[in-house]
């Protein structure tokens, strides 16, 4: 089942100028320049003037087309269109500066290094938690980790159902990690939460690794899992499968919803 062993380590790093956030920035700059050129041309050749609102919409549409051509992840299409329109709208509303700072700090705490990892915040639902619990090996003590544990719902749910096992979540973004810590303490849960990058973990320490990441992260995750996880261990991923690797388990927590995949390490 393995595509080959490899040296364990961090997910593959991209050159700085090829990171999606930097590419998106250059696309917006290019789109803005094109719209400026169009506005200047219209003003020189006709009596028509391009309004600020229409210019923002045109910039967003052009950015979407370039983003699609660059084959970036689907969520960048939405971001690229909304960004110039939202910027103009917010400037027109003229909100107090502290509101922008507060919103920025909250988003920074939630998304943190999404621009580098390409793993945005995806919350899993209780139906997914129950499906994961049902697939855990029975009859023995387990060490289970949720990589990218968000606000800790899955980890605390599993800890409540299997008191004899150890359940850990690791989260890079500081805000979800802090909320997880507080929730676990208030509930008296045995769930444990680590702040950090799952690339720093050694997967051999765990019987089950659960992931709800993004399509961009799956090849590197498989490389790490197949290199480090012990024979018989279980890798699970919600919604996103591993390219060219057939899963041993495919479950559907919700009818017509995303699948929960599982791979037994051979």
Question: Which characteristics define this entry?
Answer:
266 residues; 2 domains; alpha/beta; Rossmann fold; 9 helices
Describe the overall structure.
With 266 residues, this protein is an alpha/beta fold. The protein is built from nine helices and seven strands. It has helices at residues 20-45, 52-69, 74-93, 97-111, 114-117, 126-135, 153-161, 174-187, 218-228; strands spanning 143-147, 166-171, 192-195, 208-211, 234-238, 249-251, 260-264. Strands 3-2-1-4-5-7-6 form a seven-stranded mixed β-sheet, with helices on one face. α1 (20-45) crosses α2 (52-69), α2 (52-69) packs antiparallel against α3 and α6 crosses α7. The radius of gyration is 22 Å and the shape is elongated. Residues 1-16 have low confidence and may be disordered.
Quick synopsis:
The chain has helices at residues 20-45, 52-69, 74-93, 97-111, 114-117, 126-135, 153-161, 174-187, 218-228; strands at residues 143-147, 166-171, 192-195, 208-211, 234-238, 249-251, 260-264.
Write the layout of secondary structure elements.
Elements: H1 20-45, H2 52-69, H3 74-93, H4 97-111, H5 114-117, H6 126-135, E1 143-147, H7 153-161, E2 166-171, H8 174-187, E3 192-195, E4 208-211, H9 218-228, E5 234-238, E6 249-251, E7 260-264
Parallel strand pairs: 1-2, 1-4, 2-3, 4-5
Antiparallel strand pairs: 5-7, 6-7
Helix pairs in contact: 1-2, 2-3, 6-7
């Amino acid at each position: 089942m393995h595509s080959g062993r490899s040296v364990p380590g961090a997910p593959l790093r991209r050159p700085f100028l090829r990171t999606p956030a930097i590419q998106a920035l250059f696309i917006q700059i290019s789109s803005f320049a094109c719209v400026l050129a169009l506005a200047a041309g219209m003003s020189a050749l006709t009596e028509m003037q391009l309004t600020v609102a229409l210019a923002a919409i045109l910039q967003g549409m052009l950015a979407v087309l370039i983003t699609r051509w660059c084959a970036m992840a689907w969520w960048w299409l939405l971001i690229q269109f909304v960004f110039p329109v939202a910027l103009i709208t917010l400037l027109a509303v003229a909100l107090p500066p502290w509101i922008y700072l507060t919103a920025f700090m909250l988003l920074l705490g939630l998304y943190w290094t999404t621009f580098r990892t390409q793993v945005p915040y995806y919350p899993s639902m209780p139906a997914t938690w129950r499906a994961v619990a049902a697939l855990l090996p029975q009859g023995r003590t387990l060490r289970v980790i949720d990589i990218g544990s968000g606000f800790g719902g899955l980890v605390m749910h599993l800890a409540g159902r299997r008191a004899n096992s150890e359940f850990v979540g690791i989260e890079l973004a500081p805000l979800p990690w802090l909320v997880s810590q507080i929730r676990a303490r208030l509930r008296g849960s045995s769930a444990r939460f680590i702040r950090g990058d799952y690339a720093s973990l050694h997967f051999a320490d765990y019987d089950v690794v659960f992931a709800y990441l993004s399509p961009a992260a799956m090849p590197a995750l498989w490389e790490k899992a197949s290199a480090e996880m012990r024979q018989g261990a279980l890798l699970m991923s919600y919604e996103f499968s591993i390219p060219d690797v057939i899963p041993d388990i495919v479950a559907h927590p919700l009818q017509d919803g995303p699948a929960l995949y599982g791979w037994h390490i051979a």
